[in-house]
Amino acid sequence: MLVIVCYDVNTETREGRRRLRRVAKLCEATGQRVQKSVFECQIDLAHMEELERKLRAAMDETQDCLRLYRLPETRGAEVREYGRFKAVDFEAPLVL
Amino acid sequence: MHLLNTLYLTTPDSYLRLENQTLAIEHNHELKLRVPLHHLSSVVCFGPIQLSTPLMHGLAQQGIALVLLNEQGRFQARLEGPMAGNVLLRRAQHQAGQDGERSLALARAFVAGKLRNTRSLLLRGAREAKTAEDEAALTRQAQNLAASLRALPASADLDQLRGIEGEAARQYFAGLSLLVRADARDAFHLRDGRTRRPPRDRLNALLSFLYSLWMNDCRSALEAVGLDPQVGFLHALRPGRAALALDLMEEFRPLAERLALTLINRQQLRAEDFVQREGGAVSLDPEARKAVLVAFQERKQEALQHPLLAEPLAQGLLPLVQARLLARAIRGEADVDGAPASYVPYLIR
Fold first, then answer.
1. How many CB atoms sit inside 10 A of residue B88's CB?
2. Based on the structure, what is the number of domains in chain B?
3. What's the confidence (pLDDT) of residue B337?
4. pLDDT tens for residues B209-235?
5. Tens digits of per-residue pLDDT, B147-178?
6. B297, A94: Cβ pair inside 8 Å?
C-alpha cells in the first residue's frame, strides 16, 4: 500500500531544527521524498505502524504536525504526477 | 507471498553505499537512485561496481543477498548473512544424496520437468508455426521428447538418465531455430548446437545470460528454504558447483528459452545488439543487456497458474515454491495420502 507522509516541523529553535532532521531521516529511510516535506512510502501496515510510532517519538506534538495518508492499491492509479520530479516505482524492474 | 525486487547494476563504476537504511547509487559523484532496503531481496552487480563495507553489513543484516557477477553475467561470489534454515533438513538432504534410489527418483523428476516443459514449448511453437514444414518438424521433435519422457522410468541409474537427457537436449537444440521467426533465423540460430564458455553465436549468448539469471534465483530460493545448494542429485558434486541449483533450474530452462524467443520474435533484440569478440565469443552489448534484464524482471511479475497450488503465482516466485516442495520431499514428509511426498516439478500448462 502507498502511504503519504507529510509533516510540518517548527524550526524556529535549534531543538526544532534537530527534530526536523530526525523526522526527515526516518522518512528517507522508508520512502522517497517527492516534495520538501512530503514522502511516498510503499509499505505494509505493520511497517506503517512502526514508522508512525517512530515519527511521533521524534516530533513535538505541541509544535509540529504530522499527517499520514493510506492509499489502498488501485493498480497504479493512486498518483498522477506532473512537473520536474518523477518518482521511482520500487516494485518495477530496477536496472541501472 | 510477496515478490521482493532485485536491483541490477550494470553501469560500470557506479558506487553504492548505505545512507540511512537506503541504498544510494552514485555515478560520477551524482546521486542516481535511492532505494529503501525493505524493497529489496537481492542486489546483483555486473562487473566493476563499487560498494562500501557499511552497505555490505546493512545488506547482510537485512538478509538481502549481494551477488557479484562478471560483465558477462557469470557467477563470481555471493554475500549472505548467517546460513538460514534448519540443520536437520540439510542432514536429510545429505542422506538423500547418498541414497542411490532416492537420488535417482529426484533426478528423474528434474529431468521429467525439463522435458515436459520443453515439449510444451515445441507444441506451442507448432501451433503458431507459419509454414506446414515447420509445424511438422516441431511436432516430430515434440514426439521425440515424448519418447524420451517415456524412457525415463526405465533408466536404471544416473548415467542412463543423463544419457537420455543429453540426447533429448542435443536434438532439441538442433531444432530450436524453428521457433525463431523466419526472417531472424540467419541472425539467431545455434551454429554448432549449444555452445558455452564462451557462447559462439547470438542465440547461445542470450540463452547463457538468461540461464545465469534463473540460476541465481534458484540458488537464492534454495538458500532461503535452508537447502544446501551444492548438494545435488542429477548433477554430480564438484567443488564450487551449485549442483542442486542446477538441478532445480532444469524445469525452468524452457521458461528462459521462451523469453529469449519472445525477445527475438518481437524484435526487441536484433542482430546488432550483440558484439563479436576476439576468439569468436559473442556477447550482448551493454544497452541490450539492460533491456533483457528489464524484460526478465517484468516476466517475473507475470502470474502463472501453478498446478499444485491451484492459484496464480508470479513467475518469479516459482523457484521459491519449488524449493519448498523439494524440501518437503527431501524431509520425507507424508503426503495427503500418507505416502512420503515425492517431488513434482513445475509444469507449464
1. 10
2. 2
3. 64
4. 999 889 988 987 787 677 888 999 988
5. 888 888 888 888 888 888 888 888 888 778 88
6. yes
CB contact under 8 Å between A96 and B6, yes or no, is no
Whether chain A has a CB inside 8 Å of the CB on B39: the answer is yes
Q: Pick from B77, B72, B15: which is nearest to B47 by CA?
A: B72
The range of the structural domain enclosing residue B38 comes to 2-79
Domain end (from B61, B79, B97): B79
CA distance linking residue B217 with residue B224, whole number of Å: 10
Q: How far apart are CA B69 and CA B330, in angstroms?
A: 30
What's the DSSP call for residue B3? -
Q: State the CATH number of the domain containing residue A65.
A: 3.30.70.240
Question: What distance lies between CA B316 and its chain's CA centroid?
Answer: 10
> Could you tell me where the DSSP H helices lie in B226-317?
243-249, 253-265, 286-301
Q: Is B144 left (phi over 0), alpha (psi -120 to 50) or beta?
A: alpha
Beta strands at B274-276 and B282-284: parallel, antiparallel or unpaired: antiparallel
Set of chain A residues whose Cβ sits within 8 Å of the Cβ of B38: 30, 43, 47
- Cα–Cα dist A50/A57, whole Å: 11
The residue of B5, B26, B300 whose CB has the most chain A CBs within 10 angstroms, and thus the best one to mutate to test that interface, is B5
* A-chain residues near B294 (CB < 8 A): 93, 95
Residues in B touching A28 (Cβ below 8 Å): 19-20, 22, 34
pLDDT tens digits, one per residue of A58-81: 999 999 999 999 988 777 778 888
Give contacts of A90 with chain B, Cβ < 8 Å: 5, 35-36, 39
Binding residues of B for Mn(2+): 165, 235, 250
Query: pLDDT grade, residue B83 (50/70/90)?
Result: low
Domain count, chain A: 1
What's the ipTM? 0.76
Whole-structure pTM value:
0.73
User: In the listed set B79, B97, B128, which residue is the last one of a domain according to the structure?
Assistant: B79
Written as nine digits, the cell of B181 is 521467426
